[in-house]
Each structure stands twice: as C-alpha cells, then as structure tokens.
Amino acid sequence: MLTLKDLKVAYGPIEVLHGISLEVPRGGIVSLIGANGAGKTTILNTISGLLIPASGTVSFEDRDITGYKPDQVIRMGIAQVPEGRKVFTNLTVYECLLMGGLVRRDKKQVQKDIETVYEMFPRLKERRRQLAGTLSGGEQEMLAFGRALVAKPRLLLLDEPSMGLAPKMITEVAQFILMVRDQGMTVLLVEQNSELALTISDYGYVLETGSIIMSDKACNLINNQEVRKAYMGL
Amino acid sequence: MTLLTLQQITKNFGGLTAVDHIDLSVEKGTIHGLIGPNGSGKTTVFNLITGIYPLTSGTITFNGMDITGYPAFKVNQKGLARTFQEIQLFYDMTVLENAMMGCQRLTRAGAVAALVKLPWVTREEAFIREKAMAALDFVGLSGTAEEAARKIPYGHQRLLEVARALAGDPELLLLDEPAAGMNHAETRELMALIARIREMGITVFLVEHNMKMVMEICEWITVINYGQVIGHGKPAQVQADENVINAYLSGENITC
Amino acid sequence: MDFVTIPQLAFSGLTIGCVYSLVGLGFALTLRATELINFAQGEMVMLGAFIGLTLISFFHLPYIMVFILSIILTGIFGMFMERFILRRILDNKSPLLNLLIATLGISISLQALAIILWGREPVPYPDIFSVEPVMFFGIRLQHLNLWILCLGLASMAALQFFFQKTMTGISWRAASLDPSTAALYGVNRQRNVSLTFALSGALGGGAGVLIAPLYFASFGMGHSVLVKSFAAAAMGGFGVVGTMIGGLALGAIETLAAGLISSEYKNVIMYVILLAVLMVFFRPKTPTGRSITEGSKVAAGRAVNLFSADMPFWIRPSALLLGAAVWLIIPAVFDVYTMRILNLALIFAVAALGLQLIVGYTGQFSFGHAAFFGIGAYTSALLAIQLNLPFLLTLPLAGAAAGLVGWLAGPLLRLSGHFLAIGSLAMGEIIFLLMLNWKWLTKGAYGLYGIPFPSIFGFEISSDYAYYFLVTMVLGLICFLVHRLTDSRFGRGLIAVRENELAAMVNGINLISQKTKAFVIGTACAGIAGALYAHYVTYINPDSFQFHVSVEMVTMVVIGGLGSVPGSLIGALVIILLPEYLRGLADYRLVVYGGLLIGFMMYLPGGLADLARYPLRILRQRLQKNVREVTQ
C-alpha cells in the first residue's frame, strides 16, 4: 500500500535518513522502532509532506506522492497523529474533531463520523465544548485519534502514541490500535516502547541513526537478542 | 567527595510536574549518566541545575555552595559548564571566537577596559586566545579555528560546544546527549574524548540515549521516568533492575 | 462638570475605541499568523479613508455601500502586499528587522502616493450625516458616532462569527496555534497567510472609512492610530475578543483622561499604559528572548580585516594616507550646500553608530533612538543658552544625559522581539511628548532659537567647512571607540547575545546587564550626535526627534549592514543624501525612497556592507598571495 524507496532526508547540510526503504501492506500494522534521534519521526513527516526528501520516492497505492504538500497527502487518504498529540489547545473538542474533516467534501458525513467518535470515546462527548488544552493526557490522546479518524484515512500514521501516558492508558491505546486495524485501516506505528509496538504489529523495522538495521515479522523481532541489546545495552 | 547534590528538586510547568522530587548526587572525578525514556525529564533536570529554569522547590548544592536560584550566568561562573541536545553555537562567530566565549568566567575586562585598553587587557585577551586554542586543540578542532561556526560539519559543531565548555576550566561538565546524530565511529571518538576529559580531573554528568555508550563509560547511572528516580547504581546493577527494564522495554504485557 | 459629562465622554471614547479595535485586530491577526508586526497597517486606514472619500465624492454612494466597498478594496490591497512583497522576504528567512523595515517602506511609499493623489491638506468628508444629535438621558449621541459604533460593532460581530462558526475560521485558529499540525490536516499555509493579510487590510480600511468623517482624511492619519491600535491588541493579548475589548477600553480611557485630566498628557498616559501592559504581560516566558536575527539565514556582517599580520606592511600607512587625503580634499571640492548635507549626514552617522551597537551588535530592537538624539540636543542647547557653558563641556554632558535616560529605560530590554520594538517606540514617543509639553524647559513646539555655534579654545566654529572638521573628528573618535569596544571581550559578549542568548547565558553572560550596557553606550552616542546637531542648525524643536527620525536611523543601520561600523557610515550617507538626489522627482521622491527600502530588503538583505565585502575579500587574497610569494 505504502512503499518508501531509498529515501534520503537532510536538515540543511546534515543528512538524517540515509536511504530508507520499507513497505506497509494493506490491512496490517507495521511498526518502526528505534532509539530517540534514530529518525522515526522524520520518516513519518516525510510521508506526510512536512519534509521534502533529498532523494528517493514515496508511493501510496501505486501512485508516486513524493514531494506532495501536506494538504495533498491528507487528501490522498493518509492521516498522521503527531508526536505529543498536538491537539489544538485553544479550540474546543468539537472544533478539533471538525478540523479532522477539513479536507472532506461530504460535510454531513463528517458530522456522522464525529458522532461515531463520540460513541467510541464517550469522555470526548461529555467534554465537547471544553477547550482541548484543558483535557488530561489520556483524553488528548483520544482526541488526537478521533481527529485522525474523522479524516477517514486509509493509512494511519501514529507517532509515539504511548509517550508520557500512564501504563493503564497505554493498554487502552494498544487495544484501540487493534480495533482500528479490524475496521480495515492500515497502520504505520512509530514507537520507542518496542514491546508494546511489536506485540500488536505484524511486521517491524528497527531503525538506528537514520538507517534500517533489521526487519522481520514482529513475533521474531520481539525475542531477538539484538533488539534487546540495542535498547538496553545488555 | 560529592561535587553536585540535588535535594528533592521539583519543577512544575503549568499543571504538569516535569521533575518530581528528585534526589541525586554526582561524585567528584566520576562520569555519571542520567538516562530515562523519552519525555522523562532528563533535559529539564539539566536546565534546572544550570539555572535556565527556576526550581519550584528543592535545593541544589555545588562544591559545598548552595546555588539554588542562581541565574544561569552565575552558575557558569561557579565552574559549571554545559552543552545542549540541540547544538547552541554563536553561528556567525568563528570557531575560535566561540571557544573564546567559554573563558568568560576566568576573565574580567568590561566595556571601560575595552575603551582604555591598558596593558593588562591586552594580556588578558592573549590569555583568552591561548585557553581557547588549547581547548580546540584538545577536541581536535584547531585546524578550523578561523572558519565560521555555521560552516563546519555537524559532528565538529558538537565538539566545538564541548571545547567552548572546556575553555573555562569547569569543575563539572554537563553533556546533554553528546552522541545524538553521530555515527558509530564518531561516537567511539566521543567516548575516548569524554574519558580524556575525566582524566583532566573534570567531573562529567551526561544525558544520553545511546545505551551502549552509557553502559560502557559511566561509573554511576541514575534512571528517571515521569520525572522520578526509578533506579540508581553501577551499570550492571541498573541493567538488572526490574523497574528499569520495564520502563524501557514495555508498558504492560499485552498478549500477541 | 455635570453628571452627564462622564457618560458623554465614555460614549465618544467608545466610538474612537471601535476604530482602535478594528485596526488592532488587523495587527493581532498578522502577528498570530506570521509573527510579523505590520507597520503598514496604519496606511490601510489611510487608504480606506481616501477610497471612501473618492467613492462618496465622485459616485455619491450611500455610506454603508462605501464602507463595504472600501473594505473589499483594501482587503485586496492587503493580499497583494503580502503576495508580491512580504512573501519573498518571509521565504528568504531574513532577520525580523528586515521585515519590519519592508513594511515601513510600504508605509512611506503609500503615504507619498496619497500626497500625490489627494494632496497634503486634510480633506473633510462631505456632510452626509444629520448634525442634530439624538438625546438619550441627557447624553448627546451624534449620528456619525452612532454609525461608527454600529458599523464597528457589526464588523467585529461578523469577524467573531467567521472565526467561531465557519470552517475556514476554525482552521485559521488551528493554524495560528500549531501551523505544522494544521498543515497535516490540510490547511494550506500560504493561502492562510494571504487570507490573514486580506482580513487585516479590510479591517484597517473599514476603520479608515469610519474615522475619516470624524477627523478628516489625511496622508498621515495612519500614524496616529497605529500605536494606539497596537496597544489595544497588546492589551487584549492579541486574541480576537481581547483586542475588541482592549480597543474599546483604550478609547474610553483616552477620552476620559483627556476630558478629566489633561488633553496635553492624554497620549503620554496612553503610552505609559502600553508600556505597563507590555512589561507586565509580555515579558518573554522562556528564559531567553528573540534577537532581531533569530531564525534568520542571512549572516550579519563580518569585517574583512585588511590589517592582519599576514598582509603587506605598507597597507596600514597607505590606507591612513588615502583616508587623510580624502578627508582634506572633500571640503576643497564641494560647495557650501553639499557640505551642509554632508555634515548632517555625518552627524547622523554618529547616532547610527550608537544604534549599530544596540541593533547590529547586540541584536536588540530600538525604535526610539531619535528621542535620545533629542535629549542630547536639548541638553547641550539649554546648557549653552541658560548657563553659558562651553561646547567642550556641553558635548560630553549631552552624551551623559542621553546615556542616563538610556540607563533608566534599561528595564525595557527585558522585553524581546516585536514587543521590544513597540516598547522602545512608546518610550521614544513619551520622551517626544515631554519635549513638546514641558514648555517651561523646552518652549514646546515653538522650539529653541539662537543656539550658539561651538567655540573651541576661542575659535568660533560657524562655517560649514569648519564644522566639517569638527564633526569628522568627533565621528573619527567615536568610530575608534566603537571599534575598540566591539573588538574586545565585551564586544564578543554583545555579539554572543545577538547570536544565541541561551548559549550566552550558560557561558557566563548576564543578558540584562550586557544589553543595558550596549543600550547606554548607544544612547550616549545619540546624545553626542544631538549636541552636534543642535549647535549646527542653531534652532531645534521637537519635530526633529519624532518617531520617523528613529525609523530613519534604524534604516541607516540595516541598509548599511548589521554589525558593520563602516556600514553605519555608508547607511547614514545614503539615507540622508539619497532624498537630496531624488529631489528632482519632486512628489515622487518618497514613493521611490520607500520602494528602494523595500527593494533593499527583498534583494540585499545583508545591507550595503555585504556588497563591499566581496571586492575587499578579493583584494585581501591578492595581497596575501604576494606576501607569501615574497617570503618564499
């Protein structure tokens, strides 16, 4: 569904991705794990069009979308839940969800989808008139997810959804990702919490300082000593 | 002997407690590592120590002196230098001038001295130049002394930050993710450099994500998560600690 | 005073407050979408007023139609301004200061165009409103004021509806909070910025049509609304509702202060309120502030050193010889008129050098430099007239007086970026207003006559030629001192503050103290320049020390090149001499001048010093090569 081929990205003179190639098949969960600064977020932001690659291609559903602007990318059916959730703090919960449907033309259907999100997360419905910035971390996470869902994407990019959440909430997030997959969405998950990521995904890529050093079925990676070593220096 | 002691330091940002009653001490002459998952508050601890943010509560003692509430420039004058995770250089200055800025705490010529330019001012200027050159030499950058800081490669910019911090003969050097964005070879060189810094008698306190590096060079490691200390000890102790492993490798067990 | 006075004053206050709110909203919108303070916002008001006037006089349209049409036209104008001028500078990642200068250039050009099209004299609107007031519990409500209030409040309601209820409005708010996440959800940043400028242009234009029947339409009307509207936006925290309330409150306070306290000091009160609001609410919440070059990719100047040890030995003596020759030849070849202009330019160069220290080296905004120039001028003039003190004493005292006031204004430097720009502007205006109102000391607008020529060791320096030598010697001395300052531990500290406040503070620099020192020295230079000016022109009044003079000084520094001592000299020469050489263009002079400013900012962001550096570097390389060959 999504294919990256030899993607290179640089911030000014500094190359941070040294030729990334990966594939996300339709209907699955693929995770991208690695330490801080390995370039995980950079990959997502390049797919989303916030960054322009120096070379290489991004193709989605057999279409070359390299160099597309962010608003073109979301119109293609790719939505990202950014790192740290990034809800619009001074907008109400309802307005934040509306923002998810900004590029959709069927505004009536958007209203229905917002209702669906409310059913999924009743807490958001209770707080729909509250400013997003006043929500707790877990509620903001729900809102960020809900916003992405209102965009009706076929591919969902998740950047560190577990970051800064309490363990109980992390379990909920994992369950939620599985539920979204079951509804037919494809998920590309970026996580530092590798065990969480690998237990729910089908396939995993391990990233180190801008290069993919390993890739395998998630169940194989999870027991791989190399992976444990990369994380703990064991 | 303890060089730096943090007692119950706490920092609230709005409603969020980024650093929550942390106790920690750094022994003189050691290399001490501070690790923890993303967003656990490591950099905030550094910012509190160096006076960039004021503490909400707690005390910081450095070299037997209570430096709680000192502004950043005064903390530096007491002999505490640091580098940043995101490189902070004076980009339009030359490499040498950047290093010269590190000698601020050893020198004193002000505006009036600059105008009158008595012989001691000229001598002090020569001294600053000498210290800066020595620091550049130490990290291996003396060859590019006259280049503009913005023009040298990323790895060198990181080293320049270290050189600038060293130029003022600090007693404690704080390194915030010194290996971020470096490849393996560069990381190895950096590790050797940190070892040499310790040999000079400078205590090193560092935040790092590269576990291999931390485990290899640090004598003491403190692990924090959600702004609290969850583990402390020698590298081997920390690696065996259940709390630490959980924080790094999993949330809760979820079945496949 | 009877009991209807206060509600009566409040009513007219709210009317004018409506206008401040609208213009202030324009400021708030552009600031939130692009982080730019658009100094041309005042000219949108002027443009709206004249477009409205034209529509009424020639097409006899009803007022409400005129209002709507003016809004549309100024909105389109605002959009064009962004598209064809500002976008390029924003994309260049030029220093913040360059953007401000570009909007000032736009403002100068538009004012000049307005003079060409509609003349210098304020033009009254035709009498379209009944003069018979509506009485309401004894308060006289003028028809015009009621119209202003209704249309103003209606526009604000419409704007509020747009931001709260339409998808475009909501996405605008989202983008102003977090541009990159908003982009992820499909907000096109470029279109959003265009929309912002269209809206703020429209708001300014609308305000112009509302205020013009009250105060006439004139080319300079933008300036008087500009600062107060900005104050309104600042008081409202640059929010939409906040700015609306801020404007209304400010209008009421202003009118009540004028009616109940004193109309002479009403503006002083306004500026003091603005400063207080800035200092209390808008000090940076982060530990470090913004420098004028922050986020910019355009490097500030580095001098090309022709006198280093690896250069041939003869270069220093020959440079000195050449300099001395030029210095002596100039008065021999130029006529009196040219010498006069040149002397003025050199006097301004002294002030510009001081400003260079503040802006170019330390990276801090200052839009009140002319006020310190004025303090120097008045100090020296008064000491000479009242106490008969000799020039050699009044000159340093003028510098000391300006520096002292600069030191008192030091706490302002806790502000940063745009807020410092506006704060220093307000401070400059306060000093200007005091010069105007302390009549017992300054004789107010009447000015001081008969300031004696300087007399040094019994020689009276009265001819333009003699003055040339006096000014060049002072300038030379200041150049030498500024060079020494910048080429030292202290000077490196200044540049460090400009380059990176965070890195400076952890390397032992006390930011506030370092900035204050630069400010005191810089303002002292302005004071010395002021003294030179006063004794040269022998007549001064507050007009010479207004805001636009401060702007001219900033322009000298930027056009010359930030962080370059010779740059400030060149800048001063260009800014003073250029309008003289453009005199042939008559009324088009200022249009071209404003256009040149814009052009400079678009195509030569590093200033003229940047142009000179290239040939100098080549020269240096050539000479170095020769030396190397000889030693080998």
What would you note in describing this structure?
The complex is a heterotrimer of chains A (234), B (256) and C (632). Chain A has 234 residues and is of the alpha/beta class. In chain A, 40% of the residues lie in helices and 27% in strands. Chain A has two domains: 2-77 and 153-232, 3-Layer(aba) Sandwich (Rossmann fold), CATH 3.40.50.300; 88-151, no CATH class. Chain A contains ten helices and ten strands. In chain A, strands 6-7-8-3-9-10 form a six-stranded mixed beta sheet, sandwiched between helices. Chain A is globular. The model of chain A has no long low-confidence stretch (mean pLDDT 87). Chain B has 256 residues and is of the alpha/beta class. Chain B has two domains: 1-79 and 170-256, P-loop containing nucleotide triphosphate hydrolases (Rossmann fold, 3-Layer(aba) Sandwich); 89-164, no CATH class. Chain B is built from ten helices and ten strands. Chain B has helices at 42-49, 72-77, 95-101, 111-116, 119-139, 154-167, 184-199, 211-217, 235-240, 242-249; strands at residues 2-13, 16-27, 31-35, 57-62, 65-66, 80-82, 172-176, 203-207, 220-225, 228-233. With 632 residues, chain C is mostly helical. Chain C has two domains: 5-123 and 137-257, no CATH class; 334-548, no CATH class. Chain C has 25 helices and four strands. Chain C has helices at residues 5-34, 41-59, 63-91, 96-118, 143-165, 167-177, 179-184, 189-215, 221-235, 240-260, 266-281, 315-333, 336-361, 369-387, 391-408, 417-437, 439-442, 464-486, 489-499, 501-506, 511-537, 547-560, 565-581, 589-603, 608-631; strands spanning 134-136, 139-141, 455-456, 459-460. In chain C, the strands form two sheets. In chain C, strands 1-2 form a two-stranded antiparallel ribbon. Chain C has a two-stranded antiparallel sheet with strand order 3-4. Chain C is globular, with a radius of gyration of 26 Å. The N and C termini of chain C lie far apart (93 Å). The relative contact order of chain C is 0.13. Chains in contact: A-B, A-C, B-C.
Please supply descriptive tags for the structure shown above.
heterotrimer; A: 234 residues; alpha/beta; Rossmann fold; 2 domains; six-stranded mixed beta sheet; four-stranded antiparallel beta sheet; 10 helices; globular; B: 256 residues; 24% strand; disordered C terminus
